[in-house]
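Section 3.1: Structural characterization of target chains.
Under the original work plan, the team committed to producing a structural model for every single-chain target entering the pipeline before any wet-lab resources were allocated. The record below documents one such target. The sequence was received from the expression subgroup and is listed exactly as submitted; it comprises 288 residues.
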Amino acid sequence: MEPIGKKELWSFVAKCKHSRKVTNTLIRKDEGHKVSDYLDLARKVAELQFRNRDYVLLFRGQRNDYRTSQKEATTLRPSLFRSDNIAPGDDGWNAYIEKQFSRLRCAEQSLVDMYQGDEESSQYLKRHRIIQWALLQHYEVCGTPLLDVTHSLRIAASFASHENTTRAYLYVLGVPNLGGAVTASAEAGLQILRLSSVCPPQAVRPHIQEGYLLGEYPDIPDFDQKRHYKAFEVDFGRRLIAKFNFNPQSFWNQATFPLVQRDALFPDDRDPLFQLSKRVKDSLPKGD
């Protein structure tokens, strides 16, 4: 993927009240611009979209700002390339990634075998590996080379706030103009999946969350292909336009801009794809 900002970027950074010209590197190393409440955030995101007209803005909320080990820059890696115990480049990293890809292949096969939709959606799922990844990623079955984001600012901020009483983070990522269910950009080295269009209609969660997925283009299908990428290249921090932080306790106003509760974002008891994902996850080798 290509880093954002070959063209001029505008953003908000810590200790600056107003937007200014920045680089992607500055945004990633910055502690983030603090916003007081949801309306403050929405106004500043509106300015970002106005000043960065060449990009569509997508959002990701997190409870923590994860950093690279060497440069102390924000990192937004897909779940397959994350580990709590091993950092990229450490001994055992390649073995870990190879094991992750092996687990992903098992999950793909189990999903296709267990899925019981109509003929059209079944054929669609079998033919398109990226759709298999979309379901496995969004339902947290196993790691994939894709990153969850959303088109909804409120939903992203809600994700960051759940079970968080101190500081939450809201990331703004810039992507090329979207067109159709899957947008592929050779220039940016990105593909963007609109989950409401690519997931079967039985999948409730992606529609509720207004979810999108980001991936490399062309995609990274296996460990052999991953060898051609350096760790820093497979990091969506390279698409950051802004990083905000806020206190979840004072950020939300229940009368005007209420938090979207977790049960509303994860209606799992009424989601057939969630039940399927549980069976797929249970079928995978233990201890991986």
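Residues 9-283 form one domain.
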